[in-house]
Amino acid sequence: MKRLISIVVCFSFVVALSLNSVGLSGRANAASPNILLGKSYTSSVAADPSYPDSGGELTNGVYAANLLADSAWQARFNATSYSFTVDFGSARTFQKFKANFFKYTGASVETPTLVEFQSSNDNITYTGACSLTQQGAGVDVTAVPYQCSSTSPVTARYVKLVVSGAAGKWSFIDEWEVLRPAGTASAILSGSFLQPDLGDQWTNTQWTTEFQKMEEVGIDHLFLQWAANSKQHTAVYPTGLSGYTQSTTNDVVAKALSMGNQFGTDIYIGLQLNEDWFVNYTNNTTWLNNEATVAQNLAQDLWTKYGSNASFKGWYLSFEVDNWNLPTSTEWGRMATFYSSVINYIKTLTPNLPVIISPFYNTAGGLTTSGWQSMWEYILARANIDVIALQDGIGAGHATTAQLASWFSATKTAITNARPATALWDDAETFNLDFKPMDMKLLKDDMAAVQSYVSKFTSFSFNHYISPQQVNPLYFTTYKDYFANGTVESVAPSTPTGLSGSVTNSMTVQLGWTASTDNIGVVGYKIYRNSELVYTGYTASTSFTDTQLNPSTAYSYSVRAFDAAGNESAASSTVNVTTTAGTTYATNLSSGKSYTATMTADASYPDTGGAELTNGTFGTATYTDAAWQGRNTGSAYSFTIDLGSNKSIKEVFANFLQVKSVYVLLPQNVSFAVSNSSGSGYTTIGNVNKPAVGSSDQTKKYRLTDLTGVSGRYVRVTVTPASSAWTFIDEIQVRN
């Protein structure tokens, strides 16, 4: 129902408009490019009572017909100058402007002689964005649009429309629009996934800044990836679900929706996360059915609390389906049953809001596009999924750019065959295998490869890997330039000079060089050892310490600079160094000794006989080698070896495996500690961070040597994984 606010006729008055006004559907228009839609405004001159402003009609999205009697028009007589002003409450970004006027010469209704669009950050000093002189020559009894663009996007809190006209004439106006920037790039991101833990860390100012930055590059929707964790029985909002407690400091759901309301951004609310999905998948139907019930209850609770928000535009189901773990129609059928149960309930609750999923595909292991197509034809024939936001898999290493078209084509064909109403979006990954920002050239190429199959590009994630609040601002600057100009800049940084190297000890080399320059900015440097890329540093630092090397070994190094686009400099000159000889400690004190672990090895890669870590057997660079034991976790775990009695210790090491193609990753850190009591009194003797290595399959020792004054009966080795992935270990040795 339209809410009318009484108008005080004076020099300035305010017209307020509710989001549910006639002619403005908050749900239909939340992501409109017109950022004035539904906004309140002030006017310097009141409309004539014969043609009044009946309550926010200048920004309600309703255009008047070419009739003086149409109530959508408002008019002023003999007003040679008048203006309208909108206060957005915080800075917004825009570039295009439009105002609609009426011309009817026979009724003395004339178009303005001048229309100016202005902006300000203090409501005192206004700057012109663009202007137009009188329009409508040669036409009559018709609406005449005045539209123009600023030369570049404008970011400001206030926007003003100033109208100048002839004395003794009527001026009729019915609609004013201010539009977000529209990129010229053919494939651009329009959305992002946000994990609530990140949003919970933001201040109110940071939330506002994040949405401002999204607006600057045309992002009109955001997925809050989950609202609850059904394994931990926690939620990211003050939930009413029995047995659940809030795990976040702030109400992240309310904050996201509030920002969506303010910025006209569509917010899709994810239901529950549960880490056991990656253990059970569809193999435990009791567990899966229970999760369907949890999803229904959660949706009901969220809608009851937040359904009045205009930005609440849909739902996201966060269980990520893939073809490796759902290999046959048996698993497909169970997944379809889960989807149907949840979606049918949601459609009863919110009939007009879409339900979105984001699956991913594996290209290795004999899996095919035809099998993927069959899987989705089967599921879509049985489940009313509105949108498939398909992960492209590039950042995660599941696919290459060259493979994208065939997998997206197969998905599109499945949709066409089974449920044509389902939309296909691209969920573009914006990170690389180091969980750092992806080069903007690669992101552009990935989107271009699937553009003909999808209707929209979302991402995982603008917020985590492009936002200037989270990563080097040069990534945002480079993406924004692509958004505006349609191309990714191609100027390479200058070549690093003055590379020098010195040996610190038998395992360590110190490098230094002179900084490179770039037209936009250098993001970091890549270190090549013996012509192999072993380390990428995402800082401006012009030094690097290479650790965990082999003693008495010759190494050659070179350095390349790179920018956010992915442009690389030429290689620096090469520096050659040789590490010093190390001491060999012949006695393996841990050989055959017993140990305990805080986390059991995975049943697929077990600790055979509970003896693999001290039996002296080293595995090959193949993850199926039985010498390895594996754990799939992002949490730290530890081993404690009992040497039997107090021993003097000169060296300790633990041996790990890297096979990136199957997400067997080297640990982020390994810590070594000793004690004479198995339960307490541990003293840390050293930490080893992940050393610089290439991307090939390989084994790597994390080693402390030449220790002095170290002794103990018990040795504890704590492993901190690089991410939620596999770590494989085969041997721990303690030597003197």
TrEMBL record:
Alphabetical list of InterPro entries matching this protein: DUF4434, FA58C, FN3_dom, FN3_sf, Galactose-bd-like_sf, GH, Ig-like_fold
- The UniProt record lists the F5/8 type C domain at 582-736
Establish whether keyword Signal is in the entry. yes
Which keywords annotate this record?
A: Signal
**UniProt KW Signal keyword:** yes
Source taxon at top rank: Bacteria
- Domain (Fibronectin type-III): residue spans on this chain: 492-582
Cross-referenced SMART domains: FN3
- The signal sequence is 1-30
Give the protein name, as stated in the record: DUF4434 domain-containing protein
Organism, by scientific name, is Cohnella soli
Upper lineage ranks? Bacteria, Bacillati, Bacillota, Bacilli, Bacillales
